[in-house]
Specification:
Elements lengths: L6 H10 L3 E5 L3 H10 L3 E4 L3 H4 L11 H13 L5 E5 L9 H15 L3 E3 L5 H11 L4 E6 L5 H4 L9 H17 L3 E5 L3 H10 L4 E4 L7 E4 L1 H5 L16 H17 L14 H9 L1
Helix pairs in contact: 2-4, 4-5, 5-6, 6-8, 8-9
Bound molecules: 3-methyl-2-oxobutanoic acid.
């Protein structure tokens, strides 16, 4: 029996007003770090494409990429619930294909759930996946797999029509069986309404504090990039500077003969060396 948190725990946390903490991770060491720190949910996000693989957006990420990284995250964690993003075009074609791909993710990685972006047709996929017993999370607001259609990485739901559509789709996702909803880049007032109307937990990113928990991207939290960060990110470390300082110190030590020292190398008894020298 696994000692990981479950969907029932998240429901209880919402009912009891305990905030749910989610963070992304894409590899074994990061999974160990965040799991040991005590986060509730690790998201293997398809943001992987941008922060780890160096793509401009998330569209090029494949199912095999997600499974490869998902396996490492599951191996590196033991308490957190692991959700893996279904990448672009693995659930949009039809709900049978969505179920087959969700099944591959769960079977091959050992993760506990999957996440799908959008309303509309995605709602049918969520219904099919959850009917097969796989926990599925929704994701509305700024949905990066539709960045072309949304016209960029922008706040969503500022006008009444769009806000009402997001609310409606949130309710439909809950009805379809989603166990959790991520809301990205929406006005905080809209988040508050949705979190109040849904019985499943609502996790925000750039969606204000009036929801049941928060999610951030690991590389943003740690400060791995010097590029301007979105307004909703809070950086908690300066990892890029610290890691680069360490690499520069190593480089200088090697160039100047300070590394390795005797303590970093192995000794050979004199009599053995004598034999070698006779050869
Ligand atoms: O891919 C991702 O990291 C995400 C989060 C930003 C919610 O979907």
């Amino acid at each position: 029996m696994s000692g990981r948190l479950t969907t029932t725990d998240f429901k209880k946390m919402k009912q009891q007003g305990e905030k749910i903490v989610m963070i992304t991770a894409y590899d074994y060491p990061a999974a160990q770090i965040v799991d040991e720190a005590g986060v509730d949910i690790i998201l293997v996000g398809d943001s992987l494409g941008m922060v780890v693989l160096g793509y401009e957006d998330t569209l090029a990420v494949t199912l095999d990429d997600m499974i490869h990284h998902g396996k490492a995250v599951v191996r590196g964690s033991s308490s957190a619930f692991v959700i893996i993003d279904m990448p672009f075009l693995t659930y949009q074609v039809n709900s049978e294909e969505a179920l087959r791909n969700a099944g591959r993710i769960i079977q091959e990685t050992g993760a506990q759930g999957v996440k799908l972006e959008g309303g509309g047709e995605t709602i049918k996929a969520v219904e099919r996946i959850t009917a097969a017993g796989i926990p599925a999370a929704g994701h509305l607001g700024l949905t990066p797999q539709s960045v072309g259609q949304l016209g960029g990485f922008k706040v969503q739901g500022r006008d009444a029509g769009m806000a009402a559509a997001i609310l409606e789709e949130s309710l439909a996702l809950e009805k379809a069986g989603a166990f959790l909803l991520v809301l990205e880049c929406v006005p905080r007032q809209l988040t508050a309404v949705i979190a109040e109307r849904l019985s499943i937990p609502v996790i925000g990113i750039g969606a204000g504090r009036h929801c049941d928990g928060q999610v951030l991207v690991y590389h943003d939290v740690m400060g791995f990039y010097n590029t301007p960060r979105p307004r909703f990110v809070k950086q908690y470390a300066a990892a890029r500077d610290e890691v680069q300082r360490a690499v520069k110190d190593y480089l200088t030590d090697v160039k100047e003969g300070r590394f390795p020292g005797e303590q970093h190398s192995f000794n050979m008894p004199g009599e053995v060396l004598a034999v070698v020298l006779e050869k």
